[in-house]
Amino acid sequence: ALREELLLSPLPTGDVAATFQFRTRWDADLQRGAVSHYRLFPKALGRLVAALGVRELHLALTQGFWRTRYWGQPPLQAPAGAELWVWFQPTVTDVDKAWKELSNILSGIFCASLNFIDSTNTVIPTASFKPLGLANGTDHHLLRYAVLPREVVCTENLTPWKKLLPCGSKAGLAVLLKAERLFHSSYHSQAVHIRPICRDASCLAVSWELRQTLTVVFDFFSSGQGKKDWSLFKMFSRTLTDTCPLASQSKVYVDISPKNKEKELLEVSPPPTSVHEAIVQGDKKTYAVYDLLSPSLFNTSRSLNVQLKWKRPQDSSEMPIPTLHAQRYVGGYGLQTGQICTLIYNTHPYRAFPVILLETVPWYLRLYVHTLTIITKGKENKPSYIHYQPAQDRRRPHLLEMLIQLPANSVTKITIQFERALLKWTEYPPDPNHGFYVGSSVLSALVPSVTAMKDMDVEQSPLFTSLFPSSDGSSYFVRLYTEPLLVNLPTPDFSMPYNVICLTCTVVAVCYGSFYNLLTRTFHVEEPSRGGLAKRLANVIRKFRGVPPL
Amino acid sequence: ITDVLTAVALYLAIQDFNKVVFKKQKLLIELDKYAPDVAELIQTPMEMHYIPLKVALFYLLNPYTVMSCVAKSTCAINNSVIAFFILATIKGSAFLSAVFLALATYQSLYPLTLFAPALLYLLQRQFIPIKLKSKSFWLYTMQYASLYLCSLVVIICLSFFLLNSWDFIPSVYGFILSVPDLTPNIGLFWYFFAEMFEHFSLFFVCVFQINVFFYTIPLAIKLKEHPVFFMFVQLAIISIFKSYPTVGDVALYMAFLPVWSHLYRFLRNIFILSCVLIFCSFLFPVLWHLWIYAGSANSNFYYAITLTFNVGQILLISDYFYAFLRREYYLTHGLHLTRQDGTEAMLVLK
């Protein structure tokens, strides 16, 4: 069964974030043997899961960066570039081989160069990534995580992604996914998540869930192109015309939470089918719901164009700061050393909570772990769990995982120094390059929420339980990514290979030549010779002049 | 501390060596092997008295030694092991010299080539002539070689027991031999392998490594009468052509230069070479800074200085070699050479 949802939320800076979620459930038990009846689940992914023994798969392709500080906590953040993390079944014997095959097959399915994922950018995190679906045990050797920060997302990646949807892009919410508007945005992220879930409440059987999410942030207002009012037509240049016949649920949620809790500032038209209130990420939010399957919606007009108007200009001074946000930058000067600084902010007024930080640094930036310092409020903060795996040249990246306690209302600064290596000339990217990318670091935390949240039914609103999961009523899970970094490495002169070989071999030959001379020749007294050719010629000329010879 | 130990070891070694040289000279004069007019070439005890002190001071006050001490590099430990090895060899104790040589080889692979000069010196000391057919020659060689190999095996097995795996062999020796890390240093290799075509990298790695070990046998044949000079030349070749040279290695062989200060009159290019070496040493940090920090110079600048420095070192060694051979020739053939018709003669290498 297919469920599709669209969440439109205006962000504090005036931009609009649209999150699409398409959920397909496949009631098949892969343990029992080969399956051939796929129905709505895309065959490519189904065969992949069966053949390689994949238990969970999460792939995200992102362009841009989610500005947590200004936009609030993201529903589902992904790091810039491509990110792939996979839990394999315990029956898989050679996980690395399966990982390599998987990345190659996915690179073919999604037209992304995921085949660059190899041992130099794959790590095995121990604590940061727990399975999101059903899991028996969590042996972290079955988990692989890789991120490619240089990947670019474009229409070529969107098209195969759309093809995996049951209705394609012809009916339902997917008609809004037109490439020329989607990539005119400041943040675009498309993801595929596959995980096993309980088939029903008694959880006697397992079925597979495929969730395809797409988050896009349109920045008409902050880039000065338009007013703060938006509509579906303005954003996507399309309106919703009809529903996908295969969908059992198709809804549009618009976030109309009042900011000041006093008056309603927003007006949504056409009037919504219902209004839904939920506590999401620690805040009470109100959503206007448009149920596309209800017959009353398309009564008046054939198309649905949700519009939002601001009744009065909003005070821009009051911008809510998210409880947990972070930033990362490179410090130092010169091409020899540098340091990576991460700043983590906890703005909760009275609650402290721990956060797991996962950093993957490529091998050519040699980290010095003895220079790792964590300072909170001027004092040193010791992490309660550190897992460090040093890099091996050209084989493995650095992996650093730490569990850090963040006190309430504080800023934590984590610095670590590194040294840059000189690479062989073929290992540098082609000349017009930005530099070397260091992938985003991952922060996972259970953030305590101000207001209590109640458990929600998975079947009723899959969007909320998957976008905003909460294990208990008092905290919600957040995974944040920091910025990717750009570093420059010292470069040799690429035009010089022949010259270098010649010069170095000349120096070696100088040594060889002088030693050969000294070793194989002995001293002799010089005999006076008759003179060379020049001397004889000179003598001939002298004879003509009548001068005595040399 | 290790630097002081090295200096003390070198001092004692050179003292002993001086005694040996003097004895040998006396013997040869009595045997009338020297030509009559070479009185001024013979080393007198007076000038030889201060040489050990000069050697120790040369090592301690060398700016290269000071720099490697400040940088806290393990080169100082390497140097002290080699210095103790030289001391043990000159004193004549085969067992100790084998042990120290094994220690030095265990740290970095290249002192293996110092096995030959040590063997030659010990043979000389035992008055065993070096003839390929003589039994005592082979007996002694086998003894010494087995001592050396046994101590090497013992040390490697100790490491194995400490680590419980053989992983350290590719990490330590494979690293030295295959040069994977390309951090710029004062040697020739780093830029060469940074700019190498992938296809040929194995070939050139092998060529460069063979280059270090290759001079041992020809030098042994030529310098079998003078093993200590052979050791000096071998040390210099190691420190120029090893895969990751440092200025500490340069300091070690430069410490031996006062021992051959009597060759001064035969050195051809000493002024230019010393200027080149001093100049290059000053330019090294300047061009490094320009490349890495200021960004206004290229890696080629630093590479050029590397080239010049190594050429200077090579020419220094070959100059000393030339001077040494020339003095030997004069000792046996007389200082004033005349041609057949009585005019002053020139010496050439033919």
From TrEMBL, chain A:
InterPro entries: PIG-T. One of its GO terms (biological process) is attachment of GPI anchor to protein. GO terms for cellular component: GPI-anchor transamidase complex. This is PIGT transamidase. It comes from Struthidea cinerea. The lineage of its organism: Eukaryota, Metazoa, Chordata, Craniata, Vertebrata.
TrEMBL record, chain B:
Belongs to the PIGU family. The keyword Membrane applies. Its main location: endoplasmic reticulum. Keywords: Endoplasmic reticulum, GPI-anchor biosynthesis, Membrane, Transmembrane, Transmembrane helix. Pathway: Glycolipid biosynthesis; glycosylphosphatidylinositol-anchor biosynthesis. One of its GO terms (biological process) is attachment of GPI anchor to protein. One of its GO terms (cellular component) is GPI-anchor transamidase complex. InterPro entries: PIG-U (IPR009600). The chain crosses the membrane at residues 82-102, 108-124, 145-166, 172-193, 200-221, 266-288, 300-322. It is a multi-pass membrane protein. The gene is Pigu. It holds the Pfam family PIG-U. This is PIGU protein. It is found in: Endoplasmic reticulum membrane.
